[in-house]
Amino acid sequence: MKFTISKEALxxxxxxxxxxxxxxxxxxxxxxxxxxxxxxxxxxxxxxLDVGVSGSVEASIDKEGSTTLPVKRLVSIIRELPAxxxxxxxxSKNHASIKSGPSFFKIIGLGEDEFPPLPKFEDATEFKIGQxxxxxxxxKTSYAISSDExxxxxxxxxxxxxxxxxxxxxxxxxxxxxxxxxxxxxxxxETDIIIPSKAINELQRMLGSEGDAVVRLSGNQIxxxxxxxxxxxxxxEGNYPNYKQVIxxxxxxxxxxxxxEFLNTVRRVSLLTSESSNSVKLTFSKGNIxxxxxxxxxxxxxxxxxxxxxxxxxxxxxxxxxxxxxxxNLGVExx
Length: 335
Fold this sequence. Notes:
CATH architecture of the largest domain: Roll
Oligomer: single chain
Strand order of the largest sheet: 6-2-3-4-17-16-15-10
Structural class: alpha+beta
Number of domains: 3
Helix content: 10-25%
CATH topology of the largest domain: DNA Polymerase III, Chain A, domain 2
Order of helices and strands: EHEEEEEHEEEEHEEEEHEEEEHEEEEH
């Protein structure tokens, strides 16, 4: 196998697939990227057996073929190369020679036969979702995904396709984020799934603002096709908690406030919270919210924010990180 490619294109292609690879891979082949050179393109694939990512970049192919090379080391080498053009040739023992300007590297790979293939999605249930819609839904919910591995079903985003709506939900048991979008699909496609956070992170990197993503479901696997790139992932199996129960049906008070002003105020005041008193106090009064933090060992902070509120005075204390996360991820002017 032999090809020539620009340093930037190869680096971009490798960066798109390298995040899946764990530094503590159980099998040596799982530390490698599968490189397939054919038809003027390099196809790059990585997997950790739960999530797989595949993308392609254009290259000048002198001799078609395939191999696998350690992806983290390869990225480190390509990033440091002195010239903008890279020539790579691989011999029958999977030894890759990399030349760029005066630099020469030789790295030892493994045969492509050992590389686990990504699952095929024949007879799969298919959805077409706008990339921008998908990106927005992930952005507005993913911050609430739980990282507590003992509650495995919460380590991802619950997605429901029901009655012409696509609903995304994430919760860690202390906060919950939900977004609903209209989506056209046949009634036979109705389902609900839990997509693990690792696949969500990869998808977020890949999504753009134009065109559609094609989502396919087959058994306990999901795939996302975005342009030339594909992400394949196992789904989380289990029953997601009934999130509708915790969303209040009756709203006693309604306050309208400038999102950015509120976010900046909470951020400033939270500088005086500590591990032992990690909360800010919000006091709601007519036309105003007072944001306060008080730490015995550190000091105190207080700042008012103008708000559209006409009701009785009341106060709540809240974790500032939980307060700021939705404010950061919403794009609107007022909340």
